[in-house]
C-alpha cells in the first residue's frame, strides 16, 4: 500500500493560488456558470458512511451529500441536480479554488487560514477528534494509546495538530503512519497495520460500520477538541455566498420552526406567521436579490427536509450509525446550532 504525506502542500500555497486566480475577476458569476452547466458540482469525501459516499448503485448518500443537494434544490428545484467529486484532504481546497467544484461539503474544519484561501459560509456539523481502537487493545482513554501505532490521513488535515496536543496533554508517545486518504488509513487499520485509526468523531463512527465485525472496535475521544465543520465556496462571489449560506440555514431554521418535509404544505396553508409565509414562497419577489425562484426554501424543505430529518436519516436514529446528536442539537435543546433569522 502506498504511504505518503501531503504535508508539503500547505496553506501558504493555497493562499497564493487564491491571489493568482481571484474568482471575482471573472465576468460570469458562479450561479450563471452553474445554470449553464445544469448542475452543482460538490466536493465529497472518498467514502465515509453517514457523511458522503456512493452506494452500490453509484448514488451518493450522507449528511454532507444532502447539505449540497439542498444547494442544488435552491438553484434548480431538483435535488438530483448535484454531482459529487471525491477528494482527499490535500485536494479539497485547491479543487474549490480552481473551479473544479462549486461547493465543498466534506468534513472540513473552519479555520482562519483556510477561510483566507476559500470562503466558509456556514457550519453544518460540530465534531471532535477521536480514535478507533480494537477492543482487544484494551484502551479506554487516550492515555492507554501510549506506544500505539496510529493510522491517519495526511495533507491539510488538522488531525496531526490534534494528535500533537493529545500526546502533550496525556504525556504519551505514538508512532504515526500517514496515508493519502482517510479510506486508505482506515483500510490499513482494519488490516492490522496500526493499533488505532484517528479521524473526526462522526467519521470514526461511520468508518466503524465498514468493519467486518463493528462490535470489536470502539471509539475513544480525546475530549480536547471541538471543531466546526464548514461548508465552503470559492472567494469573490457574494451572491453565491448568500445562496449557499441560506440554503444551509433553511435546514436549521425549518427545524426550529417545527417545519418538516411532511408538514410543510399544511403549514404554508395555515400559519399566520409573516416570516414563515415569506420563506415558504408566499411573498412574491422576496428572493429577487438571490436570483432564485421564491419557492427555493420551500423546495429545500419539501425535498430534503429539515436539519433533524437529515441527521436522523444519515447519522442518527434512522441510520445504521445511531450516532448521538450531542452538540449538533439546536441551541434550545442544549446544542450549538441556531438559525439566522429569515425576517
CATH architecture of the largest domain: 3-Layer(aba) Sandwich
In which order are the strands of the major sheet placed?
Answer: 9-8-10-7-11
Gap between N and C termini: 54 Å
In total, how many beta strands? 12
Class per helix and strand makeup: alpha/beta
Compute the gyration radius: what is it? 20 Å
Low-confidence stretches: 1-26
Task: Name the helicity range.
Answer: 25-40%
Keyphrases for this structure?
343 residues, alpha/beta, D-Maltodextrin-Binding Protein, domain 2, 3 domains, five-stranded mixed β-sheet, 13 helices, 37% helix
Descriptive notes:
By secondary structure, the chain is an alpha/beta fold. The chain has 3 domains: 133 residues, 3-Layer(aba) Sandwich (D-Maltodextrin-Binding Protein, domain 2); 97 residues, D-Maltodextrin-Binding Protein, domain 2 (3-Layer(aba) Sandwich); 85 residues, no CATH class. It contains 13 helices and 12 strands.
Amino acid at each position: 500500500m502506498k504511504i505518503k504525506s501531503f504535508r508539503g502542500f500547505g496553506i501558504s500555497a493555497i493562499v497564493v493560488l487564491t491571489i493568482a486566480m481571484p474568482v471575482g475577476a471573472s465576468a460570469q458569476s458562479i450561479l450563471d456558470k452553474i445554470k449553464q452547466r445544469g448542475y452543482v458540482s460538490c466536493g465529497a469525501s472518498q467514502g465515509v458512511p453517514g457523511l458522503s459516499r456512493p452506494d452500490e448503485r453509484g448514488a451518493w448518500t450522507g449528511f454532507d451529500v444532502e447539505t449540497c443537494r439542498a444547494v442544488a434544490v435552491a438553484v434548480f428545484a431538483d435535488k438530483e441536480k448535484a454531482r459529487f467529486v471525491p477528494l482527499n484532504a490535500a485536494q479539497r481546497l485547491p479543487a474549490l479554488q480552481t473551479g473544479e467544484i462549486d461547493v465543498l461539503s466534506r468534513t472540513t474544519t473552519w479555520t482562519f487560514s483556510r477561510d483566507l484561501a476559500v470562503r466558509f459560509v456556514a457550519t453544518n456539523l460540530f465534531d471532535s477528534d477521536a480514535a478507533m481502537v480494537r477492543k482487544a487493545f484494551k484502551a479506554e482513554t487516550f492515555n492507554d494509546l501510549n506506544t500505539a501505532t496510529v493510522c491517519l490521513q495526511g495533507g491539510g488535515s488538522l488531525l496531526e495538530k490534534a494528535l500533537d496536543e493529545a500526546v502533550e496533554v496525556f504525556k504519551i508517545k505514538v508512532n504515526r503512519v500517514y496515508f493519502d486518504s482517510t479510506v486508505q488509513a482506515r483500510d490499513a487499520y482494519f488490516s492490522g497495520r496500526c493499533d488505532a485509526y484517528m479521524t473526526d468523531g462522526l467519521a470514526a463512527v461511520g468508518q466503524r460500520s465498514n468493519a467486518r465485525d463493528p462490535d470489536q472496535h470502539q471509539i475513544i475521544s480525546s475530549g480536547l477538541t471541538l471543531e466546526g465543520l464548514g461548508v465552503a465556496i470559492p472567494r469573490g462571489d457574494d451572491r453565491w455566498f448568500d445562496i449557499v449560506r441560506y440554503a444551509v440555514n433553511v435546514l436549521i431554521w425549518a427545524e426550529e420552526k417545527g417545519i418538516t418535509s411532511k408538514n410543510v404544505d399544511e403549514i404554508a396553508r395555515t400559519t399566520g406567521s409573516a416570516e414563515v409565509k415569506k420563506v415558504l414562497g408566499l411573498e412574491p419577489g422576496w428572493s429577487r436579490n438571490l436570483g432564485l425562484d421564491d419557492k427555493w426554501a420551500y423546495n429545500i424543505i419539501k425535498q430534503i427536509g429539515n436539519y433533524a430529518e437529515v441527521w436522523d436519516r444519515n447519522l442518527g436514529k434512522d441510520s445504521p450509525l445511531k450516532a448521538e446528536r450531542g452538540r449538533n442539537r439546536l441551541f434550545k435543546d442544549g446544542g450549538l446550532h441556531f438559525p439566522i433569522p429569515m425576517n
